[in-house]
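REQUEST ID: PR-0412
SUBMITTED BY: lab tech R.K.
PRIORITY: routine
TASK: structure prediction, single protein chain
INPUT:
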Amino acid sequence: MPSSNTTMEPEFYRMAPEGVSVHTARMRLEEVTPEKLVEMAEEAERAAALLATAEVDVIVYGCTTGSLVGGVEWEEALVRRIECETGVPTLSTSRAVVEALKAVGAGRVAVATPYTDDLNRLERAFLESHGIEVTAIKGLGLVRNVDIGRTGRPAVEELVRSVAGGADAVFISCTNLPTLPLIEPLEERLRRPVVTSNQASLWAALRGCGLGGIKGYGVLLRSRL
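STATUS: complete
OUTPUT:
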């Protein structure tokens, strides 16, 4: 995960079912720009190799735009690099999101992000490359990752309201954007699934383990895996 991420670990700890432990290694990142995200990925094998010494069962490359910044083939190559370095099954947050959106039957998706327009364009292209129609995408224009982690609930709720119309589901992007307490209230209010980067990452990591039915964090995690 990015070194400046202050949200993913606490949210994983809260969501993880009994018997599942969470371990992290960090890659240096302070500003969320395409250039800095590509630079961060150069540390992927080093960070993953440290996790492999803990004999983890699965590795998540825990950064949404950081795993899609170079496009579909770049994301696939990144995952392969980590798997070749560690021998551990690996997934990226961006691919987990795609699988999660398809699992909840979302063909038309509204996207709320903390990002600038250049990253939003890359995210739209990645989702659409996987056959997901993006009805709207809007960001908060934040660059410093610590600022993303400090974003308050009202700002996220207002952002979601501004994009949600006409979509099958809402995707709230970024592993550092605090969203966990919002998922179920937003689903009730909007009457459609809400997928977040951290929720989708954990869901994908637990697939195949028979550890579904996690309550309190939206329809995605309530479903049996």
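NOTES: The two ends are 24 Å apart (CA to CA).
REVIEWED BY: pending
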